[in-house]
Protein 1
Amino acid sequence: MCRNRIVFVLLVLSCLFLSACRVVFDPFAQNTEQKEAQKENRQKADVQEQEEVVQEEPEEPAFNIDATLTLDGENMVLSGETDLPPDTILEIKLKPYKGNATVEEIEEETAGTLNEVPANTVGIGTSVEEDGSIREKTYFRPDLSTRYRFELTFEPEGQEEEIKQQLIEQAGALDELAGLQVLKEADPDASMVHGDDPVKGYIQTVNIVKADEENGDGVTLELE
């Protein structure tokens, strides 16, 4: 009788022990814990990578252009200084912003533009004087109630051969000048000069708001 009781007790204890083992070594629980640990490790790794990322500063351009645009009613007066060689040609473009573009969108550079105002309306580009100043020129502002983007560009490959040689002597190969930007993507059907190569150079811009808005008239704006 005692022997039966002992056997019964051992069986009960064995069941309890096995039940406890199932709880402790439940594979599903282990999988969940492993997934959580892996997720936590990945999050830590992502944070570490973000902290280690070093943002590259934009390359300084090989040449400096410090230009301003003075708004006076329908007149826009461009002036400034540069270390580009004398007689270097600088092009300008005036692009109207779409009518529904807000000031916030313009400041955030997310606003769309329409086709540029024809050169025979706004005026053609300018050039560099012997003393390094940008030849002062007045351009026409077609509509005082329209917002515009004024662009001043310098294209090394578009200069006269003599100017190109001076640029090379000052700063090296024209297609490797520091700080070059793509002014126009490759378009083989639209250009007999550049073929299927993108047009590169330097560009500075300034936003022109409506004349009745703040800084829309009677002010001098810096191109950036």
Protein 2
Amino acid sequence: MKLFLIFIISLTIVSSSRSFEWKEFNENLPKLPINSVHGGHDNSGKKLYIIRKNLNGKILYGDVGDGNDKKDGFVIDIDEDGETSVADFEILTAENYVWCAASSNNLNQEFPICRSPRGNDLLTGTLLSNGNCRLVHPEKTIKTNDVEVLIVGKTNCN
């Protein structure tokens, strides 16, 4: 009995120290989860939130807009052309996160997610190994000095 109780206590400590969670989401759910990570916005001002989807054994990152009647997300495969619309995916939720200017100090984050302003849009994308950012909409690769990277678990860039 003591061993079982110790296991439960240690499991609780480990899970409570995690500062983020990927939550399952599909078009049948009424709204996005609380604490969904805001990634940017489109030119109409609609907020975009960070998502991921496992397609053919690859984790692909992208975004979903809030306020649609149908909440399809879009992910991009950095090895192929085109974005893919997905109706079921995981959405990133976190209590604390910050977007920081990309630098050599923060390119190896746990989340290969970036964003960049394009006109009136603030668009999300996937951070490439060379430090560039491949945007979801439109499919475009931009240089590191034009992007911010997502850092989860912090509230400032220092």
Protein 3
Amino acid sequence: MKAFKVYDMDRMGYDGGVKYYRRQRDAERDFYDRVRNNIKHLPLASKNDFDGGRPWKITNKHWINGNVILAASFNYWEDSWTDCGTEYDIERIEFADELK
């Protein structure tokens, strides 16, 4: 039986928010809903903040250890508190729609 897995991956490589679907159309709908949600709610980096590219992108990929149909990545600002004060850095989050 084919199943489609939609998940997000944090900066440490752990996946979360995992959902499985039988139909590819349902998985893709969830994928694009997550993309739209991140564009609206994440403090995305601007072109001048990192390498002049877009702060988010969707790609069609195929990984060796699994068939990833779609992947999206977001570069956004994340703040953290340290002994020296608040530090800001650009983090990356990924979503993938994977065939299992």
Protein 4
Amino acid sequence: MERNEVWFIAVVATTMGFLAGMVWMDVGHSAGRLERYQTLITGFLAVGAAFITVNAMKRTDQEQRARHAEQMEQAKRPERLARQRIVETYPAVFDYLASEAELVGLGSVFVCIRS
């Protein structure tokens, strides 16, 4: 549900509540029931508002995490492209360096660079 829809529903529900209360009083009913249960009704409305707020915060947090992950991938992209360019441009030199690294025990470094 979009933010604008939630506000619209809240405004319409509040307006209907006020209108229903005025009609209730105009018909001749006493406000005894309303006075007796107003705290309970307010509590239900507060819990509903809290539920809507928590859902909005969760959705915002998920969107922010996705945006952050995308930005991190974009930040790593130039480094990956540079490594790939070096490997593709100088394959003989890279193979020589990889074989030398194997001799000294650093072969896993060149395997990571190649992928």
